[in-house]
Amino acid sequence: MNEENYLLKATRALASAKLLLDAGDCDGACNRAYYAMFDAAHAALLIANPSTNPATTKTHRGLIAAFGEHLVKTGMLAAELGRSLNQVERVRLLADYTGDEIEESDARQAVSQAEAFIAAVGQLYGQARSTSPKTELFQHDK
After folding, report:
1. pLDDT at residue 133 greater than cutoff 70
2. Which of 28, 35, 36 is nearest to 104 (CA)?
3. Which GO terms describe its molecular function (predicted)?
4. Is 92 helix (H, G, I), strand (E, B) or coil?
5. Whose CA is closest to 107, among 39, 34, 35, 21?
6. Where do the domains of the chain lie?
7. Mean per-residue pLDDT for 77-96?
8. Can you give the pLDDT at residue 54?
9. Are the C-beta atoms of residues 102 and 34 closer than 8 Å to each other?
10. Which of 36, 51, 72, 75 is the most buried (most CB within 10 A)?
11. Which residues of 31-61 are buried (b: 16+ CB within 10 A; e: fewer)?
C-alpha cells in the first residue's frame, strides 16, 4: 500500500470514529481513532523513508517505534504527535481488551488527537508532494 492509500484509509477511520462517538460508542470511537492514527503513521513513514522495511512496521510496537525514530527524533514531526499515538493506543487497548468503561471525555480526546495527527501527516505529505516529481498525488477532494 502507498502513502496515499494509507491516508485515505486513515481519513475513513477518523470519520468512523466521529460517527461512533456521536452515537455514544466510546469504545468503538477509541478503536477507530487509534487505527486512523496507525494508518496515518504508516503513510508518514512511507513519506519520510520510502524504503522502510515493512517487517518493522508489521506490529503496533514496531510501527510506533519506527514513527518515533524516523519522524519525531529527526524533527520531521512534533514530539507531541508521538506522545499522542502512544496515548491513544493505551486508551484503545483499554477499550478493546479490559472491559473498563471509557469516559466520553477520553474518547473525545482520542478523536481530537487522531484528527490533529492526520492533519499533521497530511501537511507532511503536501510538503513532500511539492518537492517531489511524483505523479501519484493525494487529493483531499476525491
Report:
1. no
2. 28
3. DNA binding
4. helix
5. 21
6. 3-130
7. 95
8. 75
9. no
10. 36
11. bbbbbbbbbbbbbbbbbbeeebeeeebeeee
